[in-house]
User: Fold these one by one.
Assistant:
Number 1:
Amino acid sequence: MHDVIIIGAGPAGLSTAFWCDELGLDTLVLEQAEEVGGQLHRLYNPINNYLGLKARNGAELLERFAADLDSAEFDLWTQTNITSVDLKAKRVSLASGEKLQSIAIVIATGVRPRELGVPGEKEFSGKGMIESGTRDRELFAGQDVCVVGGGDAAVENALLLAEVCPTVTLVHRGKKLRARPEFTQQLQSTHCITVFTESVLTRIMGDDHVEAVEIQRKQGLKPFQLAVRGVLIRIGVEPNTGLFREQLETDERGYVVVNSQQETSVPMVFAAGDISNPVAPTISSATGAGATAAKVIASRLSTK
Ligand SMILES: Cc1cc2nc3c(=O)[nH]c(=O)nc-3n(C[C@H](O)[C@H](O)[C@H](O)COP(=O)(O)OP(=O)(O)OC[C@H]3O[C@@H](n4cnc5c(N)ncnc54)[C@H](O)[C@@H]3O)c2cc1C
């Protein structure tokens, strides 16, 4: 029996665990990945917006987090496959057959990139699918590429790739790009970028590596093929709520609804970080929400 089980070890889960430890709670963190850190592993840009410290990228920030967590005494299990969670009973079942019990649960499972769901997307992973403009652009220098999406992340990546690629084709299904004016203005003056709005990428093709994409411009028109060597998809994120979505209140997109104390609709079940923050997800808000959840849990347990 633990005081607290935290599901997910990104910035929110780690901060919750750090605070729970400070407050003397018996804490177990369950992480499905090999390593802790969550989205910090996909963050290749400099982090200049975390008050008090700067880092060259997510990996460096994670090193700093890890140094602070070195002396903490909470239990952390990585590569943990949770098969079911009974939120009301606070019972977590693992693929190993183990059943874990706690007084409180904190959901900190974050978000994952939304997939397009088109043929070729999974098959060409590592063979022409670009994960990040910052990280991969030298790999794709001198090659024609395609970017899918119309928000900040898509346009920013298109601009980064345009610095080294002869052509960048940006495909967006909406009528207008959603990216901030600073990016769209820059886009207009970047001549090697072609923008197709009201268009969808329907297929990624090639042999051993991406060689072309199929694009459908407007409903009803015949798709056409475009030769490219790289494809980057940035069409938003989805909350990781699969395990418990039916058991608590979520919004229409599946994000967990919480109050100002990070409480969910189930007593003694809390949520922190991106999983409960569709509006302004950041590392600061994730670590802050984790601190709030831990403090509220500690005060509830002290009055039991
Ligand atoms: C490219 C990029 C750039 C960014 N730049 C910035 C920036 O400059 N500044 C900033 O403040 N923020 C930035 N962010 C956002 C920031 O990374 C997130 O807001 C932050 O990581 C959220 O932390 P989290 O712990 O809520 O979720 P996550 O980081 O998503 O961590 C969730 C963890 O839960 C685990 N998990 C999920 N499901 C399960 C399960 N069923 N069982 C066990 N574990 C599970 C995951 O494996 C993961 O480790 C950026 C994000 C990206 C992708």
Number 2:
Amino acid sequence: MFLLKDDYWEIKKTKEKGYGVFAKKKIRKGTIIGDYLGKVIKISEYDLDNDKNGLFLMYLTDLAAIYPNLKKPDIHLLNHSCTPNCWIYIYRGHTLFFALREIEPGEELTISYLLSPKDETCNPCTHTCKCGSKFCTGTMHLSKDKYEIWQNLQDEEKKKTKTAKFTFGKNLPKLASYPKIIPNNPIYAIISSANEPPSAIPNRQI
Ligand SMILES: [Zn+2]
């Protein structure tokens, strides 16, 4: 569900990545883009290998994932990028997307799909990345280092939040209220350093 007002975004077809979400107006750093909603399914009952839509699954717990309504234009249409301008914020167990930096009109809104490092189970791997970033790794799978940074960060965030209330087979209900903006806090520095190759930040103090 988009939480960003309608006049700030539009869905457009991209050259190589299907549909994508683009900014129509300047979006301030920290702005909440939306809440990832959909039907709650049991991961164990889902055939991840045989559904190319598996990339749309968002893990809620170790057992449950959200499967969005693919017929509806929504935040699941944000494409993956190796240098995304949006990131995930766990709020009351919900997966919110927020702007990692200021986003200019016309820019595509992107997120990291945070796929675990590539291993032999992903063969042939269909997770080719076409983000076009100059730091593109060519794959949506994260390197081991970046993946560990993200996992640690997510573990910390999860400790601070309640888990979402849900019923398997039903839609995850939206929350009664949402923050509008994620205020500046150390999370940005951690995420930025995880987003950039070490060679790009030679002088950064973290
Ligand atoms: Zn890429």
Number 3:
Amino acid sequence: MPVGTLASVKGVSQDVLEELGVQILLGNTYHLYLRPGVEQVRKLGGLHRFMAWPRAILTDSGGFQVFSLNELRKVTEEGVTFRSHLDGSSHFFSPESAMEAQIGLGADIIMAFDECTEYPADSARMRQSMELTLRWAERCRKYFEEHKEEVPWREHRGPREADKGAHPTRADQTQALFGIVQGGMDVALRKESAERTIGIGFPGYAIGGLSVGEPRWLTREVVESTIAHLPADKPRYLMGVGTPEEIVEYANLGIDMMDCVLPTRAARHGLLFTSQGKISIKQARYSGDEGPLDPKCGCRVCSRYSRAYLRHLYASNEVLAQVLNTVHNLSFYLDTMRAVRHSIALGRGARFLSEVWSRPKP
Ligand SMILES: [Zn+2]
């Protein structure tokens, strides 16, 4: 899932995202709640209609941003008080208000409000945090069941471009609320968190609290042990990963969904993922290079522009550099996942792809 934090994948318009084959986007509740505000989006018919994106959207609960962007947050049983990173104003998120916000935004998949346990944390702290997330998960589920009819889709149906191609029965459906497994880096706690979250009952499960500063081998170890306790017939979503090599690896472990700012954020810093490894387009060595960015990539950028031109755009701080770099990186990630799906469909799993990406860098 490409990340469209503020109802926009930075630098890339929705028609290009469709052409790239993006099936689902992620929006951040924390950012949309602060700007333009949930009520504003709700009045305009929900996120799909507001951003003219008829395909699927997932919103996170806001929990991760509250924990990662706010050093002055205060956590109680009731919820989290935090300060806006925009103007310092004080706000409060509870499981109920996070559900209310996500119902108002109207994404297809919404996430339970959890506490993202910091790393490192001792075992008492990991246990206490996991128990809090479980109590919050129950409150999320309860609020959602009582309010799921309040999605903005029903009131806003019309002959708008954004409505065309939308799922024909969307107006009759509700959102899907996913639960989130926590438990820090303790595999026994992860197992318990998975089992008790399944006990509450959700149509999909996420593994949260990873990619928070721990070494990659530990991320993999926790994912591998946690996924064994999650039902294979429900979507299993690993939040906030990863590099092209990592997403292939996680897909091979059984992960169905992932999101990451890496392809888009790295692109804006001139870091490009290619079949030959990572390229930093700002380097002077590319200033006379007439070859395509990635000779094996068929995207609209690689089939048209040279490395020399992309290097020039970046060095000149042209807006187009960010646009083209983002389009290529997204295309590379989406191609990677298409190859993974193809391989899985053939019964081969995703592992063979790891070899492709782990070749020595040029
Ligand atoms: Zn390309």
Number 4:
Amino acid sequence: MGRSTGVQPMIGFDYVKARDVNDAVSEIARNPNASFIAGGTNLIDLMKEHVAQPRQLIDITDLPLIQIEETAAGGLRIGALVPNSDLAYDERVGRRYPLLSSAILAGASAQLRNMASTGGNLLQRTRCLYFYDTATACNKRQPGSGCGAVEGFNRMNAILGWSEHCIAVHPSDMCVALAVLEATVHVTGPRGSRAIPISEFHRLPGDAPEKDTNLARDELIIAIELPAAGFPRNYTYLKIRDRLSYAFALVSVAVGLELDGGAIKDARIALGGVAHKPWRIPGAEALARGESPHRKVFGKVADAILDGAVGFGHNGFKVELARRAVVRALEQATAGTPQSQSVKAIV
Ligand SMILES: Cc1cc2nc3c(=O)[nH]c(=O)nc-3n(C[C@H](O)[C@H](O)[C@H](O)COP(=O)(O)OP(=O)(O)OC[C@H]3O[C@@H](n4cnc5c(N)ncnc54)[C@H](O)[C@@H]3O)c2cc1C
Ligand code: SF4
């Protein structure tokens, strides 16, 4: 028997290009080991690392899902294939939902954002180091194998909403803004179409960390719908990371405020980089309503959001970092500061 070289064999797969939405859905229903591919910026990396091994790729890039349209309710409907760049720079999005533009532009690089699709961004997988390393245990990659991160190098991992089976975080910036905007995800599949509120789209790991979302394997994301309220005046996306660009969030905070006569009428706050899904605590937001926008109030809100937060050794610093980031983001949003996309972590 020859010695292993450590090189993994190339794995073959079929490739088809879907003609229309019905074709894409029936193709995936036929093949239980198929995956849709859009921009490919996450899936191809996962395939190269042998983390994902689809037997068939269904290319959806020809589907007519690249429009951004007005809705009757005064919002916008964004096709699942709209590139992240086009979405961020759309004039209506920049004017009515600048929080969304800011969050997208805080992510990845210009080249990646040109390729990355809106639907793919929702479904990008965690950046937990052990998920990508097939030589280590990972319940998300291989259910029942254990979790290498709990006692490993967990600097980027969760402080909230984790389970003993998985402490991964969802890495998206866009989704944190969508949580504040209370977007709806429209999907279709062999059993028909449905609308999923963004708060129910991603899930906590519980005892099934292999499932990132409540989307069925054979469902296709068609569009994301934004309601009319976009917090165009008092918003912020604050992303704390190790490098000024091209780095995932250690902690990020999206805030949308509605101020009325010197008091907070409405406050929405979502955190990224801290949990398996964008983290929102409506009870904490309620503490701000009717109050003056002051640091003391923001501190109470931050404490309520971070209630129960726990680190795992390397990421313990995130608890205080997140608390301070929430206070700072609320101050920026109150001041109407257009944006801060370049905050470097000093930890
Ligand atoms: C080096 C690097 C840095 C990055 N930095 C950041 C960052 O800082 N912040 C951030 O938010 N993101 C970051 N990203 C992630 C990037 O935003 C995602 O890879 C991208 O959004 C995925 O979109 P895609 O169209 O390329 O998806 P793909 O790779 O094509 O697909 C991803 C997954 O989504 C599924 N899928 C795609 N479209 C649909 C659909 N319509 N319906 C159903 N399933 C679908 C695919 O089957 C696959 O499972 C980074 C990526 C890289 C490579
Ligand atoms: S935290 Fe989750 S993704 Fe990371 S090693 Fe553990 S099970 Fe895998």
